[in-house]
């Protein structure tokens, strides 16, 4: 016989319903702030204690609540926002369900103080565990103050799922930030454990709010967006192409003033940045999408942070067009060319760039000697040239225009010439003459993969005692450098070339090797981090690096400070939404420190990875991947040979940390079979 069906008691039903609305302190803050905004407030103060677990106090100067309505406000489905079914399709307020106050009162000890503009006295009302008292007279300013204490005091099963105070506090701060951005005309103040953490000016200018919340570095790297495609309007700011982040934490979308998470908006924005952002980088945005209320359904998520659009394709098109137009109108768009655009620009003999003194010739690309179509070898130290081939200083105004026109004519003439086979090299020859380390190794011996400070000396693989003759181009034919005669056990292959600036070509007397240089360097750094964890040599930065992070990311970094210190990072809080990195692992010099730290902080905040001392390979992997030589970048002979030596120093270096192969090896016999010689 089945179990009997029982009707739940009212108190139990209230607790269950509260679980849909109140997940943590930040949920309470979000609901109460939305009520304050709907009440017409232009100044809102949020105060929390112990992460909001022990105290939440929200004060506004809105219209207040009439005394006769106060007890009713704490009943389920009691609301002033809608009255009938038709109103659901025209919701223009942030709150409308009438569930928030009832849900909060079911799991907290709540005190309310309120006064309307036409009242001489205010009203005080207390409710605990869903059981209310009597309304009392109270002296208070116009508006409403709601105090919630001891969240989940009567549901210990829910209490144990709350996180540390600092984590919950940062979640509350994130809610205040997002809401302050959506209503820059309202002055928001956030007090945390008695300390003022943020205070927006309420000027009505979005950029002022961004500057206050995220700092000048973010505000000064924004492009204004304004686009109308009736019935849609998209406005706000997006980041300059060169100011890209390693995650989406700075992407803020608002639909009719409500913060939402929209995959449609994210996809449209990133499509607008196509060909101007590197892979794995994401733009920042503060975008407001306005449309008739009947074209968006906000009643599809308990927390109302997800919405459903009536015409999703139209929304995508509006956001995409707005972002794309803003990027194209950005005067400094040349600072963020994609690799394909950079290649096309390089083929035009007009290497001009805008500098402090006006237009000037751009510096030539650096790196090792490369075989060019014209046979000219470009030195890394060569001075910049003007378009007419002479060395010179920056030019501006009419002179710059003249240079452009001259270069355009010269480019047209060059396109008339047929290109010879010798002018289409696929393989870059690398000189066998050892050169000064550059790029990722330029900081000295401790930057070379495999070398480590305070490390016991170990036998190094054999290196050619005398360099072979440099590779050269003769009669249009690429000459290979001759491999050295090894003769010792475990002979290190000699580097003879580099393919596509990505793969190392090396050989011994009877074997040929094709090596992915990024994967190889990544694995070497990964092994080094594992080997030197807790004892890694750190470098104090002469100029500390400021990194903009979300509150939850700052919380995660502070929570795992010891883990990061053992990995070589020393960082501390810097204002409301940033941290400053003061020390780094010594081999990360000349790397994108901000990008590496952002990625690590993002992974820690997501909580998807285990962070115990025995399960932190993901951390080493993140650092190594970002710090390794990038495929497509030029490398010197010294760097390539050093990588080959380190590959053969470590037996484990066969696959990169992602599982991709590092080396493809072919014997002489294998190659002869390919050509039908056997």
UniProtKB/TrEMBL annotation:
Region (Disordered): 346-393, 410-477
Amino acid composition bias (Basic and acidic residues), ranges on this chain: 413-426
Protein's GO biological process: mismatch repair
MF annotations from Gene Ontology: ATP binding; ATP hydrolysis activity; ATP-dependent DNA damage sensor activity; endonuclease activity; mismatched DNA binding
One Pfam family linked to the record: HATPase_c_3
MutL C-terminal dimerisation domain mapped to chain residues: 495-635
Every DNA mismatch repair protein S5 domain range: 210-328
Keyword Nuclease: yes
Start-end of Low complexity biased regions: 456-470
Superkingdom classification of source: Bacteria
GO cellular-component term (any): mismatch repair complex
Keywords: DNA damage, DNA repair, Endonuclease, Hydrolase, Nuclease
Function: This protein is involved in the repair of mismatches in DNA. It is required for dam-dependent methyl-directed DNA mismatch repair. May act as a 'molecular matchmaker', a protein that promotes the formation of a stable complex between two or more DNA-binding proteins in an ATP-dependent manner without itself being part of a final effector complex.
Family named by the database record: Belongs to the DNA mismatch repair MutL/HexB family.
NCBIfam families named in the record: mutl
HAMAP family reported for this sequence: DNA_mis_repair
Name listed for the protein in its UniProt record: DNA mismatch repair protein MutL
Natural source organism: Bittarella massiliensis (ex Durand et al. 2017)
Gene designation: mutL
